[in-house]
Design goal:
Blueprint lengths: L5 E3 L3 E4 L2 H8 L39 E4 L4 E3 L7 E7 L4 H17 L4 E8 L2 H11 L5 E4 L1 H7 L11 E5 L5 E6 L4 H15 L5 H13 L7
Parallel strand pairs: 5-6, 6-7
Antiparallel strand pairs: 1-2, 3-4, 3-7, 5-8, 8-9
Helix pairs in contact: 5-6
């Protein structure tokens, strides 16, 4: 067990060790406002200048800076002109580990059309570096412990389970918020929805309603 000597407001009342830290953020059922079928959370911690949408999501991808794989600070907004897929995860989270091959595939197949996955590992840096090297992650990673948890608070009210993923258009407007493991059929719906926003066919708010209907029609994902 690795001790963490800090207090995380709203997410962890008092983190006395890695076990408490893990328990506080492990994927589980949580009471969060519903924002379309694929979404189970909303974000209160957003700059007032950018504002929130009517359904509680921040309109623009909230800015935060964490260390990248090389140990250099990097802003999540440094990928300009890209449709972002920002995936929050941790090495101890089984659903997080399961969806990494799919995220690798999405990056390989859709990176050329402007989609950019960034994994945000809320975990101990040495654990992330070791795991990323072992399995191979083909997209950029940002890594943080307390600062990673602070980034999480910009997307949800109260504690959120892992993984969760936000999708933006190419202007960094938030389009979709997904809590839980992403499955291939869901990914297809969400990527297609972002494309329609980029093409000017849908606003982000309208896109959430369209995606919700399509996701509800999908067969239940097998665990």
């Amino acid at each position: 067990m690795k001790p963490i000597g800090y207090v995380v407001v709203a997410l962890v009342a008092a983190a006395a060790g890695f076990g408490i830290y893990q328990f506080a953020l492990a994927p589980r059922a949580v009471e969060l406002p519903q924002v379309a079928n694929e979404t189970n959370g909303s974000a209160p911690a957003q700059d007032a200048a950018e504002g929130d949408s009517d359904d509680g999501l921040p309109e623009i991808l909230p800015d935060f800076t964490l260390a990248n794989l090389e140990g250099q600070p990097q802003s999540i907004r440094s990928w300009t002109g890209k449709s972002m897929i920002v995936n929050f995860w941790a090495t101890w989270c089984a659903p997080c580990r399961r969806e990494i091959p799919l995220l690798n595939k999405i990056q390989a197949e859709h990176g050329a059309e402007g989609f950019q996955i960034v994994g945000v590992a809320v975990d101990f840096r040495e654990d992330v570096l070791k795991y990323a090297k072992e399995i191979g992650i083909d997209y950029p990673l940002l890594i943080g412990e307390e600062d990673g948890l602070e980034a999480v608070t910009k997307f949800g009210r109260g504690s959120l389970g892992f993984p969760f993923t936000v999708f933006t258009d190419n202007q960094h407007r938030l389009v979709l918020f997904h809590l839980g493991e992403i499955h291939p059929e869901q990914a297809e719906v969400m990527l297609a929805t972002v494309r329609r926003v980029n093409a000017g066919e849908l606003t982000p708010a309208a896109a959430r309603a369209v995606a919700a209907k399509q996701l509800q029609e999908l067969p239940a994902a097998k665990e």
